[in-house]
Amino acid sequence: MSTVRTETVNGRKNSQIKNDLNDHDLSNVDLSTIDWDNLADENGHFGIYGGCFASETLMEAIQELDEAYNSLKNDPEFQASYDNDLRNYVGRPSPLYHAERWSKQLGGAQIYLKREDLNHTGAHKINNTIGQALLAKHMGKPRIIAETGAGQHGVATATIAARLGLECVVYMGEVDVERQAPNVYRMKLLGAEVRPVSSGSKTLKDALNEAMRDWVTNVDNTFYCIGTVAGPHPYPSMVRNFQTIIGREAKEQCLEQTGRLPDALIACIGGGSNAIGLFHEFLADLDVKIYGVEAAGHGLATGEHAAPLSMAKPGVLHGNRMYLMADKDGQVVEPHSISAGLDYPGVGPEHCLLKDLGRSHAVAVTDDEAMEAFHSLTRIEGIIPALESSHALAYAMKLAPTMDKDKTIIINLSGRGDKDINTVAALEGIKL
Amino acid sequence: MSGRLTECFATLKEDNRKALIPYITAGDSNPTITVPLMHRMVEAGADIIELGVPFSDPMADGPTIQLACERALEHHTSLHDVVDMVTEFRQTNTTTPIVLMGYLNPVEAFGYEEFAKAAKECGIDGLLTVDLPPEESTQLVAVLKKYDIDPIFLLSPTTTEDRIGKIVHAGSGYLYYVSLKGVTGSSALNVDEVATNVAKIKTQTTLPVGVGFGIKDAESASAVAAVSDGVIVGSAIVKIIENNPDDTDTILDQIGALLSSMREAMDK
Ligand SMILES: Cc1ncc(COP(=O)(O)O)c(C=O)c1O
Whose CA is nearest to atom 13 of ligand 1? Predict the structure, then answer.
């Protein structure tokens, strides 16, 4: 059942979604008329979002990537090797698990967890890195680079690089090197070189800056494997297509287990890859409510958060236009989240458009709420979630009690929490 | 097209000289030094000034200009401040063209129309936004043209003939050829390759072509000037500020001396 999703060009043009900075109000668009598989135009514009805002020195490499991806995405042989890896190397399909005890405790809707934490390497990130690494190999690039926040994308890249015999360099902010130490060691064991980044806020956005600089300098032999649905076109669409397997499996499993579609979907949003992976298959099912959960950090009112969809205006960074946390002068603001994977000031362009269309709802939970959810799921279901995923769980703790017991919610449990035990222990004053 | 840039290149051509185009980041190492430094650079032989607009995430820049941005941002130097600096500069210099160079987001935050209007009023002649390829530039270019501000675009060794066509069509004033793969401040400069690529660009346009990245002394400046219409010097100048952040006199003297030596070598 795992195939690389292709964008069928089926006539409907979504002409009501304009790429015009002076005229992009979408509040009156009739959602039933939208072709959800083709939200972007051929140059990756999701309305005013997305696009390709890259320096000239990168344009050739980006076009080369776009062409290679376009020629491969419908190639049966490429799909077959991707499918095979997802099944036999990653362990797909991942289960959809009815968390009965937790549902009962919350006292409302039935909660189903899409268990991306059970994938090889412990998160959804591997779905994407396998796709991109196969592409790199096909393009004859012997060297693969990546940025990482939580380290999950770095580990997933280092893993597939090891298996395909590619040289691997991972950029990681110094703050994250510290708080995700187990993943740093895993990457090293896998043969990757981890380069700590000390500029700016020393987190994910700075790692991305540094990876871009590496790519410009080494375009000839290097493939840049971006870990989320952001960056210059074609990354947001390509990474989404590698992640939509999550939603396609979940839909089938939900129908199988409950006999109907879910009432709501919840996923955490850093750049947005696990979220779009779950959401995309359900976009046309307008009765399914969609919630993207951002990191409210110390609280939205404090300004110390990582919640651009909830709080920011459109801006341009890292090759695309998106909701971007910036000050009045356009300088990017340093975000804050307890979770390294959500500690990013922007969000993928497709999520920005979905928000503007009113198809998805942007919500946010604080560090403390995420911590509470982390402990709750661990103690009641015996599943230790990643701190990123704990944000999705925390929102479910608010939403489920407001819904009837015969309603269902699917939460993307995007990763496991082993990598976070140092952070959690430190917060609790425990020395490991 | 802005009068000042056209006139500048026309005069240079008449005199059989090439443009010397220094880059500094506005507000580096502090905002008070910028305008005096601009005047000193003109005295030392600069024909055009590229004034960097500091940005929090200068993705296309190497460590030297990253640090310059950080120093300028410690003083919160904004695009509004840059406009004020140019206003001050124009009180005594109305002829030297000024091109702002930076990233798109500060311009978006300012507002395209508001920026172009302010730029025109204070005497800014061109704008180069590093992360805005011509494909994405339609709206901004239309606004800039309305206010006679030249949109300056980059070309690189990897730019295909097809894209050269698009870029020379979208740009005006001059074109900025990036002499090597990599970020600003990289070193390996291959003058033969520059000559070949500039010639290739020239088959598609009559716009002047300036060359930047990797020019650091009189020798490289004169070599590149010989095969192009102008040389752009960035990191070598910014490095002087980095080495003497609190010493205004030394900064002015050393940058003045570097540019004079380049001017002399280029005019030989
Ligand atoms: C487990 C997990 N979930 C979520 C994220 C956030 O990324 P995205 O929003 O792209 O899914 C990360 C990123 O590192 C992660 O490791």
Answer: A341
Assembly ipTM: 0.96
CB contact B127 to A (< 8 Å): no
Residue B106 in contact with partner chain A when CB distance is under 8 A = yes
Q: Where are the alpha helices (H) located in A282-348, listed in sequence order?
A: 308-311
The per-residue pLDDT of chain B, averaged, comes to 96
DSSP code, position B146: H
Q: Which residue is it, tokens 């805002």?
A: A53
What are the backbone dihedrals phi and psi of residue B235, each rounded to the nearest 5 degrees, phi first?
-60, -35
Say whether B88 sits in a helix, a strand or coil: helix
Taking an 8 Å cut-off on Cβ atoms, the answer to whether A56 and B159 are in contact is: yes
Read off the pLDDT of residues A241-259 as tens digits, 9 standing for 90 and up. Answer: 999 999 999 999 999 999 9
Pair A408, A106: CB distance under 8 Å: no
Which residue of A147, A316, A325 to mutate against B (max B Cβ within 10 Å)?
A316
Say which residues have a Cβ less than 8 Å from residue B19's Cβ, sequence separation at least 6.
Answer: B8, B9, B12, B47, B48, B174, B208, B210, B229, B230, B231
Contact A60 B73 (CB under 8 A): no
Take residue A110 and report the two structure tokens written for it: 């039935």
Give the Cα separation of B121 and B105 in Å (integer). 21
Q: Distance (Å, rounded) from C-alpha A86 to C-alpha A2?
A: 7
Judge if the beta carbon of residue A151 lies within 6 A of ligand 1: no
A111-137 pLDDT, tens digit each: 999 999 999 999 999 999 999 999 999
- Residue partners of A396: CB distance under 8 A and separation at least 6: A106, A111, A266, A373, A409, A411
Task: Among A396-410, B45-59, B178-192, name the one with the lowest average pLDDT.
Answer: B178-192
pTM of the model: 0.96
Query: What's the confidence (pLDDT) of residue A74?
Result: 92
Q: Scanning the structure block, which residue is given the tokens 């740009």?
A: B171
Atom of ligand 1 nearest to the CA of A228: 10
Burial class (CB in 10 A: 0-12, 13-18, 19+), A119: buried
pLDDT > 60? residue A27: yes
Q: How far from the centroid of its chain's Cα atoms is residue B97's Cα? A: 10
A152 C-beta closer than 6 A to ligand 1: yes
In whole angstroms, what is the distance from residue A145 CA to residue B160 CA? 25
Pairing of strands A319-324, A49-53: antiparallel
Tokens of A18: 């304009």
Q: Is A406 on the interface with B (CB under 8 A)?
A: no
Whole-number pLDDT of residue A364: 98
Which residues in chain A have Cβ-Cβ distances shorter than 8 Å to B53?
A: none
Q: Which residues of A are catalytic?
A: 125, 147, 414
Nearest to B123 by CA among B166, B78, B83, B157: B83
User: Is the predicted pLDDT of residue A33 greater than 80, yes or no?
Assistant: yes
Helix (H, G, I), strand (E, B) or coil at B231: strand
Q: DSSP alpha helices (H): ranges in A10-151?
A: 56-72, 76-85, 100-106, 125-138
CA–CA–CA angle A409, A415, A416 (5° rounding): 110
Query: Positive or negative, the Cα torsion across A49, A366, A276, A265?
Result: negative
A236 CA → ligand 1 middle, Å: 14
In this structure, of A4-18, B36-50, B175-189, the range with the lowest mean pLDDT score is: A4-18
Contact B163 A53 (CB under 8 A): no
Is residue B186 less than 8 Å (CB to CB) from chain A? yes
